[in-house]
Amino acid sequence: MGERIPTRHSLALSPSCNHCSLSNLCLPLAVSDGDMGRLDEVVNRGAVYDRGQAIFQQHTPFRSCYAVRSGAIKTSVETAEGDYQITGFYLPGEIIGLDSLHAEEYAGSAIALERSSVCEIPMDQLESLSFEIPTLQHHFFQLMSQEIQNGQQLSLLLSRKTAEERLASLLLSLSSRYERRQMPPTAFRLPMARNDIANFLGLAVETVSRVLTRFQSQGLATINGRSVESLDLEGLHSLLQSPGT
Amino acid sequence: MGERIPTRHSLALSPSCNHCSLSNLCLPLAVSDGDMGRLDEVVNRGAVYDRGQAIFQQHTPFRSCYAVRSGAIKTSVETAEGDYQITGFYLPGEIIGLDSLHAEEYAGSAIALERSSVCEIPMDQLESLSFEIPTLQHHFFQLMSQEIQNGQQLSLLLSRKTAEERLASLLLSLSSRYERRQMPPTAFRLPMARNDIANFLGLAVETVSRVLTRFQSQGLATINGRSVESLDLEGLHSLLQSPGT
DNA sequence: TGATATCCTTGATTCAGGTCAAAGAACCGC
DNA sequence: GCGGTTCTTTGACCTGAATCAAGGATATCA
Q: Nearest residue of A to residue B102 by CA position?
């Protein structure tokens, strides 16, 4: 279990725009101030997990969703046959556990990639709340269909793209997600190991490494170990255009 | 009249169950008779689509989910770059459109693979209904997280499995889904073209064909064109066990 | 500070599955 | 039944990425 940190207001709602305390999610939520307060009471803000620690694990009873506040999380599924697949990387402002919403148990595991602060959203309480606050239900539906669509994008990536395209996609995805958080989109830290990237993209570690160095020599990116120092967003993007048809 | 006693309508009832058009969904739903009646009013039962016809199309306004009653449907997404990926095959008793639930537009298209009867579930009406029938909301949450998990399984399939494993997975999946519908699990009709199978599994058509004939010669399956005549479920299943680790 | 495990890169080799090509088989409208 | 699609199979060949192997780079911890 992650260590508890004292309840603080760092997840404060911005009163101007009516986002909920899940506000990092950047989805507008029109609720009254009163409802907003009740929502805040439910959300249990801030536990900290060290690198490698599990936020939750597959086949354990589902209790909460989790919003990442700092750090980074990877989620994964494991089949009966023992295959292990990373299903996503989650950055601050993103929510994990949606795949298990209203299921008996978690449908996968979530592991901290580095020291991460995570706020817990207990589902039993939220469920009853969402009857009183219709918008909230709507909100979660939206998040879930977003999640389904992410999965479909991933499928497309895994079945139809070359190694270079996969890496380009990942870098661009990270870039735009950092940007959305008002962080530099062409210089950031890769929170995950090459190994994890490889698994996520369905490649061998060696291939990831090779393609990354190839990007370097083509001037598409400057990457030093885990730190991305510059990206040619244009150039990477143009890799994705399939010339045919 | 006294209190209405909630009746448990198991949605796994035979397709002829005339209580609820959603009945094919095979998920237990505990609602009162009255609620069930109202639900039935909302659901618009039975439009028929010919082979190749679109039930809905990507980037058109989302209006309804659809439950397949007979026939078969394929769903697909298309990216800005023009990649086309089939995201699923839907058999009678399954629901499509969940990925777009509460989104502005459909996140993909749905095309009939053969003459299919499909019942429409208009979301605007269902939304207000689900406010009054808590179980219904729960029901849809469940369906959606199921859908996310399907997607994750697909990702795993596409990134980590060999051509043989992919085909085996598909055959086994179809088999168990037919079985759930009280149909023979080892002899059924493949509703989709090799082309579609290939696209779905991330393979070339030729590979699909080759693997299928290899299955024949190994006695794992007897397949004649689009009709599966016999399957060695045991044998196919054992293909999926990854021996390593 | 050095010992040790983990992570990352690079090279050489191999192979599963893609691509190209072409011939049957099934289906459709007339 | 007949010409034209569209679907399916089979063969020959080629390539992108996996695998095997091994040497650097980083991190972790006593």
A: A142
